[in-house]
Amino acid sequence: MKRVLITGGAGFLGSHLCERLLAVGCHVVCVDNLSTSKIENVKCFFTNPNFKFILHDIIEPLHVEVEQIYNLACPASPVHYQLDPIKTLKTCFLGVMNMLELAKKLNARILHASTSEIYGDPDVHPQPENYRGSVNPIGIRACYDEGKRSAETLCFDYHRRHDIDIKIIRVFNTYGPRMAAWDGRVVSNFIVQALGNNDITVYGTGSQTRSFCYVDDLIDGIIRMMNSRDGFTGPVNLGNPYEFTVLELANLVIGLTGSASKIAHKPLPQDDPAQRRPVIDLAKTELDWKPRIQLETGLKKTIEYFRGITA
Fold first, then answer.
1. To which CATH superfamily is domain 3-175+214-239+277-291 assigned?
2. Count of alpha carbons within 13 Å of 15, Cβ hemisphere only?
3. Contact 7, 92 (CB under 8 A)
4. What are the tens digits of pLDDT across the range 168-187?
5. Is the pLDDT of residue 271 over 70?
6. 195-204: buried (b, 16+ CB within 10 Å) or exposed (e) per residue?
7. Which of 76, 145, 146, 158 could form a disulfide with 100 if both were Cys (CB 3.0 to 4.6 A apart)?
């Protein structure tokens, strides 16, 4: 089986990807600086002879012998990426450059996890891959939004200049077990608040929309993209095309948890997108992929996980 590197491997998505690849016999090298992730997410793999953990920040060069590189390393929630915006930009550019240099040296295939945030507060809805976005380059979210946009540019320039075998995915809102409890993401925030019978914080009117993809579906899409046909680079949207308002999500979480929480409205943060939903036609055609887990089913599994860690 293949030897793979997963940067950000101890994070929410990374740990699920480690688990899935180990299950099919891959040799997995997990790299993480643990700045926004937890070693507990991958400790259960330490006894697996096919798993190796390296504490490392990809802002610094790294050499490991692998055939495939999954680059997932970057703070992904507003709370984390705004904490040190310059470091976030370094991770998006210098970190990605280091991984592309490694791919070049090893003649390895590299999959880079980009984001729906490259579309900004979109003027086009839903968002197809050929939409170029509407991003505020000097706003408080720009370190992540523009960082991820520059990372895509870098990937394609390495592909054109050095014939690097790249795969680009754009990840839309994803949720599930191992999310950090207070990372600013709407699903984890609502669940933790509901389980504590605290007010559920809804920014603005709650009419802004999101689409929510369960983590198992997303991991399936990531692996399919890595192993897609030669010459197909993407970018490809990976997310759930079913759209919900934030207020609908809040009320659903209250119902599923049996919470006594009330809705508390607060001012909308700067540059918060009003609408977010992917067009996934390309993923259906090229990867034979679409999400299968319904929101209520995925939320029940996620709530069960948070009950376990907050009990």
1. NAD(P)-binding Rossmann-like Domain (3.40.50.720)
2. 20
3. no
4. 999 999 999 999 887 778 89
5. no
6. beeeebebee
7. 158
Q: Where are the domains of the chain?
A: 3-175+214-239+277-291
The position carrying tokens 């540059």 is: 271
CA angle 32, 34, 40 (to 5 degrees): 100
Angle between helices 295-310 and 246-257 (to 10 degrees): 60
pTM of the model: 0.94
Check if the beta carbon of residue 253 is closer than 8 Å to that of residue 202.
no
| Residue 16 token pair | 């699920």
How many residues in the chain?
Answer: 311
CB atoms within 10 A of CB 249: 23
Residue with tokens 């491997």: 9
Residues identified as active-site? 144
**CB neighbours of 89 closer than 8 A, spacing ≥ 6?**
143, 146, 147
Q: Residues near 231 by Cβ (< 8 Å), separated by ≥ 6? A: none
Phi-psi region of 172 (alpha: psi -120 to 50; beta: other; left: phi over 0): beta
